[in-house]
Amino acid sequence: MPTSSPLSLRRRSRFVAAVVAVALAAGGVAVLTPSGPASAVSYPSWDDVQKAKASTQAQQDKVDEIKSLIDTLKDEATSKQRAAEAAGTAYQTAQTKYDEATLKQQKLQGQADDARKTASASEAQAGQLAAQLGRASSNDVSTDLLAHPGKSTDLLYELGAMSKLSEQADGIYAQASQDRGVAQGLADKADAAKRALGSLAAAAESKMHEAQGAADAAQAAVAAQNDNQDRLEAQLTLLTTKQQGVEAKYKKGVEEEKKRQAQIAAAAARAAARAAATTSGGTGGGTPTSSGWVRPTGGYQTSGFGMRVDPYTHATALHAGVDLAPACYAPIYAAHDGIVTFAGNGGGYGNEVVLDNGGGISTAYGHVVDGGILVSYGQHVSAGQQIAKVGSTGWSTGCHLHFETRVNGAATDPVPFMAARGISV
C-alpha cells in the first residue's frame, strides 16, 4: 500500500485537528456541506472510510474518490481566486478612468473660469474706452477748428488722439470678443466632460460591486477547501498507511503548531506596536479630533496625490491618494466612522477596504497584506478602529498604505482634506 508524502507542520496540525474531530464523531457526520457551489457535494463519512478498508478494491476506490474531491476543492478555490483578481483589476481600471477623467474635467473647468475672468476684464476695459470716446465726441472738435483757427494745432492733436483711441477701442473690443469665445469653448468642453463622468462613475461602482461578489465567492471557496480538505486528507492518510493510533501520534504536532502560531502572532503584535509608536511622520489611530477623524496609520508620506510615473508599472498615471509607509503588518485604522462598501481584491490596489463615511465622503485603504482585512462588507466601523494591516499586495514595491479620500465619488488630495479636519498626513 503506498504511503502518503510527509505533511508540513502546519498541514500536520490541521490534519490532527481533523482526525480528532472525525474520531470523536465516530461516524456521526456522513455529509459535509461547505458554503458556495460545492455545497451539493457529498463527502465520505468516517464509517465509509472504515468500511472501505474491508477490501483492497474498495479501499482503492475510496482513495480515488477522496483524491478527486480534494482536487475539486483546490480547483474551485483557485478558479474563484483568479476570478476575484480579474474582477479586482476591472474595478481598478474603471476607477482609474473615472479619476483621470475627473481630474481633466476639473482642469478644464478651471481654465474656463480663468478665461471668463479674462473676457470680463477685456469687456470692462473696452467699456471704459467707449465711455472716454463718448465724452470726447460730445465736444465737436471739427466745429471748434472752423470757429477758432488760431487753436488749430491743439485741435488737430485732439482729432489724432481720438482716432488713436478709436483704433485702440476697436482692438480691445475684438480681443474681448475673442476671449469670450475661448471662455465659452472651454466651458462647453468642461460641461461635456462633466456629463461623461456620470457613466464613468456608474461603471466604477458597478465594477466594484462585481469585484466584491467575486471576492466573497473566492472567500467561500477557500473556506470550503479549508473546512473539508483537512478531513479528507485525514481519511486519506488512514486509508493509505498501516499506522495505528494516528490521532495520538499527531497530538504533539497540534501543540507544537499552536505554540508556533502564538509566537508568530506575538511577533506581529510587537511589530505593529513598534509601527504604531513610531514618531516618523505621525502615528495612526488614537482619539478622533473634534471633527471625528484620525490618521489612518503611522509613517512618513512617501508619495503624494497627482500625476506621476508609477514605480510599479513605470507608466504616467494619476496617483489618486497618498502613500504612508510604517512597518509591514502595522495597523490600519478607519479614518472616520463608516460602513464597509468593499473588502477584497482591488486589482492594482491589492487587498483593499473602502468605507462610506457619510455625507458623500468615502475613504479607501489599499495594499493590505494577504489575510490582513479585518472587516467585512456591510460592517459598521468607528473612527480609530483597526480595519486592516499594512502590506504590499497589488501594484506595490514595498509595504505601505495607499490612502484615498473621495467627495461624491471623486478623488481629492488627502493632505488638504485631512488638514481641514485637524489631521496631518
- Poorly predicted parts: 1-40, 276-280
Query: Which band does the percent of strand residues land in?
Result: 5-15%
Residues in helix, %? 55-70%
What is the terminal-to-terminal distance? 63 Å
Shape: elongated
Q: Please describe the biggest sheet, giving its number of strands, its sense, and whether it closes into a barrel.
A: 8 strands, antiparallel
Average pLDDT confidence is: 75
Q: How many strand segments?
A: 12
Which class of secondary structure composition applies to the elements?
alpha+beta
Q: Mind telling me the C-alpha Rg?
A: 36 Å
Topology pattern, helix = H, strand = E:
HHHHHHEEEEEEEEEEEEH
As an assembly, this protein is: single chain
Number of helices: 7
Topology:
Layout: H1 9-25, H2 46-52, H3 56-137, H4 141-147, H5 152-240, H6 246-277, E1 300-303, E2 306-309, E3 316-319, E4 322-325, E5 331-333, E6 338-345, E7 351-358, E8 361-368, E9 380-381, E10 386-389, E11 401-407, E12 410-412, H7 414-419
Antiparallel strand pairs: 1-4, 2-3, 4-11, 5-10, 6-7, 6-9, 7-8, 8-11, 11-12
Written account of the structure:
Helix content is 56%, strand content 14%. The chain is elongated and about 120 Å long. The longest helix is centred in the middle third of the chain and has 89 residues. The chain is built from seven helices and twelve strands. It is α+β, with helices and mostly antiparallel strands and 425 residues long. It starts with 8 loop residues before the first helix and ends in a 6-residue tail after the last helix. The strands form three sheets. Strands 1, 4, 6, 7, 8, 9, 11 and 12 form an eight-stranded antiparallel sheet that branches. A two-stranded antiparallel sheet has the order 2-3. A hairpin with a 2-residue loop joins strand 11 and strand 12.
